[in-house]
Amino acid sequence: MAERIPMIALSPTMEEGKILSWKVKPGDQVKSGMVLCEVETDKATMEYESPREGTLLKLIRQEGESVKVGEPIAWIGKPGEQVPDEPSPSRTAGLADTGQKGEMVESTRPAERGALAEGAVLAERGKGTTTSEASRRIEEGRGAATAGAGETGRKAPEGSSSAEEKSTFPLASMLSSPYGGSVKSSPLARKLSSELGIDIRRIPGSGPGGRVIKRDVLRFREAAGKMELQPETAFPIASAAAASSEQPPVDREIPVSGMRTTIAKRLSESFFTAPHYFLRVAVQMDALMDARSRYNAESPQKLSLNAFFIKLAAEALRRHPQINSTWKGTSIQIHGSIDIGLAVALPDGLITPVVRNCGGKGIREIDQELTALIEKAKKGGLKPEEYTNATFTISNLGAYGIEEFTAIINPPGSAILALGEIRKEPIATEADEIVIRRILRMTLSCDHRTIDGAVGAVFLRDLKGMMEDPFRIIL
Amino acid sequence: MPVITYREALNQALDEEMARDESVFLIGEEVGEYNGAYKVSKGLLDKYGPKRVIDTPITELGFTGIGVGAAMVGLRPVVEWMTHNFALLALDQVVNNAAKMRYMSGGQFKLPIVFRGPNGPAEYLASQHSQALQTYWTHVPGLKVVAPATPYDAKGLLKSAIRDDNPVVVLEGELMYAWKGEVPEGEYLVPIGKADVKREGTDVTVVTYSKPLKVVQEAAELCAQEGIQVEIVDLRTLRPLDEETVYRSVRKTNRAVVVDESWPMVSVGSHVAWLISRNCFDVLDAQVELVASEDIPMPYNHTLELAAQPSVTKVVAAVKKVLYLGE
Q1: A214 at the B interface (CB within 8 A)?
Q2: Is residue A398 part of a domain?
Q3: Would the pTM count as exceeding 0.80?
Q4: Contact A189 B254 (CB under 8 A)
Q5: CA–CA distance, A382 with A395 (Å, rounded to integer)
Q6: Domain count within chain B
Q7: Residue A205 falls inside a structural domain
Q8: Is A215 on the interface with B (CB under 8 A)?
Q9: ipTM of the predicted structure?
């Protein structure tokens, strides 16, 4: 598939670069590493080497134009492949310069409004916000590598030369490092630490100038290993045995993995910046459970309950697009695609594989994708584009016997749905009879900046309605 | 197994190949009546006669050219240069004729010729006669260059060189002629283009060739006393270079020191160090170190002369540096 090639940071501090000259033209065969263009950065004139192979389909930006890091400059794909039209780049750039988006959008004829609106949002990129597909993808890459400091290496320590990683990793590691920009380290130490899943920035270097070398990684691992919790003893139910042993209880320090760093950072950011509120309902699940049993009885592919939840949530989101949104500071982004993430627990953290465009997919399709994604997640093999930028998230702790709980919103989404256990409960009917029903208690966490209480409530009411009576989906 | 000198090993190689193939002949200064300036050709004149062991005037360009011409018409000359310092005079014949003829004739001419003689510093010979000039030959496509460091390798490589249909430069060493080593009695060949791990180790790879091998071996012994296990890769052939053996070792040890007795700038050693840096980048735990001769004309003063060359102390220091030990 054709891919947009973004401007990348060619110097550690570069925020935008000016394309001095293109070295390739549409139709050219491009090899990985071939110089695409010369870029004037804040420091010097640099050659931008292609991160991937293919045919150059289109130049999005022209010579002489300044392009912000992350914005697309060209399309590369297969010969003859069609690429979508871009919003006029010059106009976008112009908007970026003026910084008066609202006014300009207002003063434009309606026909142009769409393109300009997108241009306006593109212009917002510089302030850390995104809307268009292009900038979203870049955000994905960046988010990916944020988590990647510890993870990408573990997945593919040596051969991981995928173009995307190459182009995004250095940029992202600089942006996301909580320990400062760069670390002196030997190539072997970097390889080793990523294989061991240790963030190299945490390792004290003993080489010249503080260079982290192999022995530092091994020492760090040894020290960490002594402190490491064994899975079986981590939360021992039979901790009485441990307590009764002669050894006095001691504190232990567990080194923080790259994944853990990312979880800590993202969730703290979410919880401490997004004003959360919580809406709770009890859902009668009998109709849905019965329907699922019927389908599963006649089909070899057993549909998971989560696939139903995702589909029903997508249908409710389609009817309430405000929920499927992102707070942008000066605007609210309503996402066109409903991309639902499902929180999956891993031995050393959690990850949310994302099923894209759930609004346009059936339960069976969602279930197939979900199964594949979860399997990949458990092997640690999810690609960044498979676990970042969910527009809505579901967390299901029913399997652990949790009655109900509240979840922290998973940015960039504005809401997360927390599902508890489905259990039989006595219910009073309209006719004042006591009946036994299968009840699911679910809690919606909303970001009040984007979703007001009533909006969230209507969404949850409709979702509950569809779960209790799935026939409503086609109403 | 008999223990013989490097000189005797070369003599055996010449003798065996001359007996095996009558197109092989030896030409050079003092190779006949005087039995060789360093006695490598001892006894060959008596055995094979003046048509096959030819004394020449002091005319390196001339007799090297005769050799090239003879090779082009089907003989297998062994041209002895009294030292590689003198071979500078023959550079044009080697670089422009020997190295090019096979290519430029579209393969119509073969160049089965060997150029051999002592290379590198000996002792008390001052600047003009104490040069390690391997870079001059190794630089040139079309030539093969071998640099045996033991009697065993010397015999096996010289025999391979004589049988090769391409021009082969053999780097010997004045101080090495008296070195002794085990050489089997039966015939054997050492293939051109194959490096040899002379000592197995786990902590650091030292790549070397020719005379510095002995220095490196002593340094490895000293290191072993401190618990550092040095792996020694003897290149043996400089062109074509056996890169894979070097990389295999560096992948194991994660560290490399290159020891080369020529000058450091644009040398075989600096090239090998670059290759390692480039092709083993991801497994290196330290920069590649190069121990070379100092970048100066060789001093006559013996203390300075020794100080200018790779030494056990310098090699040990480089090994420790890539291991981040001491300083």
Answers
A1: yes
A2: yes
A3: no
A4: no
A5: 18
A6: 2
A7: no
A8: yes
A9: 0.74
